[in-house]
Amino acid sequence: QVQLVESGGGLVQPGGSLRLSCAASGSIFSIYTMGWYRQAPGKQRELVGIITRGGSTKYGDYVKGRFTISRDNAKNTVYLQMNSLNSEDTAVYHCNANRVLESGYVEAYWGQGTQVTVSS
């Protein structure tokens, strides 16, 4: 079992920045691929970015170099640095931890989410 707790959300003006954090506990953090997903009202949850155990990253197309995901295995924490925010980035941001077991089963965990609101 992995417990994930997000923090760092809030209200920010267009063009501003936020850094989200996700603290993990309960298992060996370094073995999981970590990711951030977001869900805006009335929309499906979508990928923001993921970072693998080895540090490789992948982002949603709309990120366009504005966001950076990183991890600190010593602190069991994954971060999402968000710059140049706009109103379309308003959503609840969720942290995810997952790994594929030898059986093919995907072990996945989600945090409760943190609200990001971009508004003037």
Q: Secondary-structure blueprint of this entry?
A:
Elements: E1 3-7, E2 10-12, E3 18-25, E4 33-39, E5 46-51, E6 57-59, E7 67-72, E8 77-82, E9 91-100, E10 106-110, E11 114-118
Parallel strand pairs: 2-11
Antiparallel strand pairs: 1-3, 3-8, 4-5, 4-9, 5-6, 7-8, 9-10, 9-11
Description:
- There is one protein chain.
- By secondary structure, this protein is an all-beta fold.
- Helix content is 0%, strand content 53%.
- It contains no helices and eleven strands.
- It has strands spanning 3-7, 10-12, 18-25, 33-39, 46-51, 57-59, 67-72, 77-82, 91-100, 106-110, 114-118.
- The strands form two sheets. Strands 2, 4, 5, 6, 9, 10 and 11 form a seven-stranded mixed beta sheet that branches. A four-stranded antiparallel beta sheet has the order 1-3-8-7, with no helix packed on it.
- Strand 5 and strand 6 (57-59) form a beta hairpin.
- It starts with a strand and ends with a strand.
- The mean pLDDT is 94.
Number of helices: 0
Category by helix and strand content: mainly beta
Strand content: over 45%
Helix content: under 10%
